[in-house]
Amino acid sequence: MRYAVLGTGIAGRTLAARLASLGHEVVIGTRDPEATAGRAEYAEWQALEPQVRLAGFAEAARDGDTLVNATGGQVSIAALTAADADHLDGKILIDVANPLDFSRGFPPILDPVDTDSLGELIQRTFPGLRVVKTLNTMNCRIMVDPGRVAGEHHVFLSGDDADAKKAVRALLHSFGWRERSILDLGGIETARGAEMLLPVWLRLMGALGHTDFNFHIQGA
What we know:
This protein is an alpha/beta fold. The protein is built from 10 helices and 10 strands.
């Protein structure tokens, strides 16, 4: 499978490396490939993951059969616009981003929130995409290695396309998520609930002093 991971931050790099380790062909997309390649943090990672190709958003989206949105939530629409709608239609987009707005400092607020979500906004803006919201409620290391957290814990799915969710579920299995740990919340509008867990997650991080934790729904 060919994956295009949009976003070169820690989440994008972690997901790209895991996908490549599973034998997938992976391209990681960024707004300015030359500037990204020149950043020391990215260059160090790229040296460890030479099989992952760096490209602009449009080229990455063109070459990926399945897309992963790991951009910052406040710039996700701009990144997907740069990717070009012609390269998006009919493809699954796995949206792991959160609409965190740091303009007022820390902790961030969510925008959109309550009556909308980033997942829904992406689906409305790019109706040709088959958006599946998942993995946004945990640290990126747990996304690709659920065994970092002992015991039972859950990952959520939201989306309108049943076949897209089936494909994403299979990918989650390949990451190590067990079937009973995957909770399908329903349509893409249910992404509101998953995204609104982030204020709780941030406060748990502050209270615990680490990010190796996740949500477990008792009775699920």
